[in-house]
Amino acid sequence: MTDKNRGHQVMTEKDKKSRRNSLIGAAFLMATSAVGPGFLTQTAYFTEALLASFGFVILASIILDIGAQLNVWRIIAVSKMRGQEIANAVLPGLGFVVALFIVIGGIAFNIGNIGGSGLGINVMMGIDPRIGAVITAGIAIFVFLSKEAGAAMDQVVKWLGALLILLIAYVMFVSQPPVGEAIYRSFVPLELDVYAIITIVGGTVGGYITFSGGHRLLDAGISGKESIPEVNRTSIMGILIASTIRILLFLAVLGVVSAGVSLDPDNPAATVFQYAAGEFGYRMFGLVLWVAAITSVIGAAYTSVSFLRTFHKKIDQYYRYWIIGFILFSTIVFVFIGQAVTLLVLAGALNGLILPLTLGSILLAAHNTKIVGDYKHPVWLTVFGVIIVVLTTFLGIRTLIQTLPQLF
Predict the structure, then answer these.
(1) Whole-number pLDDT of residue 7
(2) Record's Gene Ontology CC terms (predicted)?
(3) Which of 359, 352, 362, 364 lies closest to 393 in space, CA to CA?
(4) pLDDT digits over 256-302, tens only?
């Protein structure tokens, strides 16, 4: 509520509660957008390969993730512009390129997320994965049919995110991992895998993910220099939530592989749950997979469409229906075509180029007074950002080179 006569903001208790819910919702939206089916497989794979030394990879990636996300969220808040608008302000036309990459990647990964949700329901109940995918899409669409879609999304991702943490924590305790060894090797690794670090950073803040929470805060009216302390806390909270889930899963996998179990290469995470808790654990994995998938469906659809909203007033006016259309399209492709392997491979290659492109434009914007006014961006954040741009550019080009032969 605004006091026009005095020219400042007066917040009621209801306003404060709504703002607090939006901040927490933004953190969980970002975190659960990162924690999809690929996140589960990726974490299991690297844990089996590096054992306790994967703890060092996680620790290093957390530091880099925080650096990347603080840069992005702060500039979005200060400029009061979405990612594509910032990119266009830095270089006319760049925002359209960024939006194109984000939407292509978003559609492809959403097909994978929809597929993962169907598989999750199949594991839980034995239902055909395609039917499970349709059920998941229906639930996700219901969230966006609400007039208060933003608030509904905040609540859904928050509670499902909390459920995900509890389920994985249970399996972690049951698997009895060597926690002391994991802590020690997190600081003194037996081997240093730079490729794993860059891959984990890309999986946590790559593509559309780091923009999901930043755009959500903008939609909730949380912006401007005065909001920076809240934006900082929420940004770090999002990384810590995603990292907590990764650490718990890492320990759960470590407990299982330390017992001499070889993970199924087709579904390594499922092996962990099944070994640790038997048939019940396998069914629980289905629930974990479904929760990870549906929250990623919601995050991918919301964020991808947010990159289109500023290009036409009709998209902005009916953005909820565009999000619903995005989910429907992804579901139809999965149900009638399948995983669309070529599209997924191409999107994976392009996704590696999105973070250096978007973060690079953010860093240029951070020191452009036409975009951020008199705001002074911390030098240490700029240095952090430049390091991440260089590392992810290297990985992105490498991935693209490796991928092209598969497409032609």
Answers:
(1) 45
(2) plasma membrane
(3) 352
(4) 999 998 988 878 888 999 998 888 989 999 999 999 999 999 999 99
CB 387 within 8 A of CB 64: yes
Distance CA 116, CA 111 (A): 9
What CATH number has the domain bearing residue 291?
A: 1.20.1740.10
Closest-CA residue to 310 (of 43, 84, 141): 84
Tell me whether residue 228 is in a domain: yes
Prediction pTM value: 0.88
Phi, psi of 9 (to 5 degrees): -90, 130
Residue 6: pLDDT band (50, 70, 90) is very low
| Domain range for 148 | 19-407
pLDDT band per the 50, 70, 90 thresholds, residue 169: very high
Asked if residue 346 has pLDDT above 70, the reply is: no
Q: Give the phi and the psi of residue 8 in degrees, each rounded to 5.
A: -140, 170
Question: What's the domain count of the chain?
Answer: 1
Tokens of 84: 């594509």
> Is-contact 364 389, C-beta < 8 A?
no
Residue 53: inside a domain: yes
Q: CA 367 → CA 210, 247, 346, 375, distances in Å?
A: 20, 35, 33, 8
3-class DSSP assignment, residue 375:
coil
The answer to whether position 386 is within a domain reads yes
- Tell me, yes or no, whether 37 lies in a domain: yes
